[in-house]
Inverse folding.
């Protein structure tokens, strides 16, 4: 039996929302999910987490043999090439000139991430501290702050159209966009499509994506192509879905004369993204493969090696969890830890 990561626990945002993804130990798949309750109609807040523990700066080499996810992904294959060969960045591209430090979530749920867990002034002050920490850790790479809003949220209930997803309106997006502007930050709009499709959900955000500082994220975990309810199993996208999004965003860049867009694709298991090698490279759209599971540092590194390093697409992302990464006496990885990875992630998200 191969080791893998268990599904994320689902938490409330109106009906259902993303909380976190737990890593299972080798040869054990832990698959519990939660049904959500309805939250209040106003954002919920709580006290900020304690300061991160001091960094021991471990260094890590990806295994070439053994039974880990990384070893299986790398077995019998040529050494992956990083940076990934491809078209040169166009004028106005964010990557690879800068590193994006993003706060993720939804203001209507304190469980979905730091973006909704704390009052806005406190949340932005926390983001400032992370930006400063990354600037100190890697002075050679300027830091670009960002807010990453889940704007289409997978649901426990089918809804009127049977799509098991809820679309937030422009008022919420405008609010978070305003927060981003206060820090000269980018805004990412993320979709959990449920039983809908990326082809249905991306175009409705075109007016927002026509702004030069708004970008897009797609989450395979909640793309339920076989009709299963979100949260019952992990969903998936194929390279064809990602390529469709790339083509859509690339056309928007050309038609609106915009700087290149960034497309973040979440991934924490092998089946979440099929045919990754077929994802196209278009200089108008910068693709980030984002390892977004939680667990001990050793398991996070293993998954990063298996699902990002071993299958080069373009740019690399890594998620850190203020609470879940610290469960059972573990520690949250630090900027120095992430800078020891190959490749060094250029998109780092905090939840």
């Amino acid at each position: 039996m191969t080791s893998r990561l268990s599904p994320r626990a689902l938490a409330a945002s109106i009906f259902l929302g993303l909380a976190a993804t737990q890593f299972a130990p080798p040869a054990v798949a832990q698959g519990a999910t939660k049904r959500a309750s309805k939250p209040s109609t106003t954002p919920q807040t709580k006290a900020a987490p304690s300061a991160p523990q001091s960094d021991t700066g471990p260094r890590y080499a990806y295994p070439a043999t053994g039974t880990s996810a990384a070893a299986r992904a790398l077995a019998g294959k040529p050494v992956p090439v990083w940076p990934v060969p491809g078209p040169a960045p166009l004028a106005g591209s964010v990557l690879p000139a800068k590193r994006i430090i993003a706060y993720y979530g939804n203001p209507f749920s304190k469980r979905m991430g730091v973006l909704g867990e704390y009052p806005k002034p406190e949340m932005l002050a926390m983001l400032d501290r992370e930006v400063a920490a990354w600037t100190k850790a890697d002075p050679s790479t300027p830091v670009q702050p960002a807010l990453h809003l889940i704007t289409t949220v997978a649901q426990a209930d089918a809804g009127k159209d049977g799509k098991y997803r809820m679309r937030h309106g422009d008022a919420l997006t405008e609010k978070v966009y305003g927060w981003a502007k206060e820090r000269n930050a980018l805004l990412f709009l993320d979709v959990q499509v449920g039983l809908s499709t990326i082809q249905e959900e991306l175009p409705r955000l075109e007016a927002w994506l026509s702004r030069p500082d708004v970008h897009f994220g797609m989450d395979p975990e909640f793309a339920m192509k076989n009709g299963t309810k979100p949260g019952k199993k992990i969903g998936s996208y194929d390279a064809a879905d990602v390529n469709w999004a790339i083509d859509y965003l690339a056309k928007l860049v050309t038609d609106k004369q915009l700087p290149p867009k960034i497309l973040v694709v979440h991934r924490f298991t092998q089946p979440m993204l099929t045919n990754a090698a077929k994802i196209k490279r278009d200089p108008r759209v910068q693709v980030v493969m984002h390892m977004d599971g939680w667990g001990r540092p050793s398991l996070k590194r293993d998954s990063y090696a298996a699902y990002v390093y071993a299958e080069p697409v373009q740019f690399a992302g890594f998620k850190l969890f203020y609470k879940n990464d610290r469960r059972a006496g573990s520690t949250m990885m630090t900027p120095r830890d992430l800078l020891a990875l190959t490749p060094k992630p250029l998109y780092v998200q905090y939840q």
Remarks:
- The chain has one domain: 97-350.
- The first strand starts at residue 5 and ends at 11.
- The chain is about 25% helix and 20% strand.
- The two ends are 31 Å apart (CA to CA).
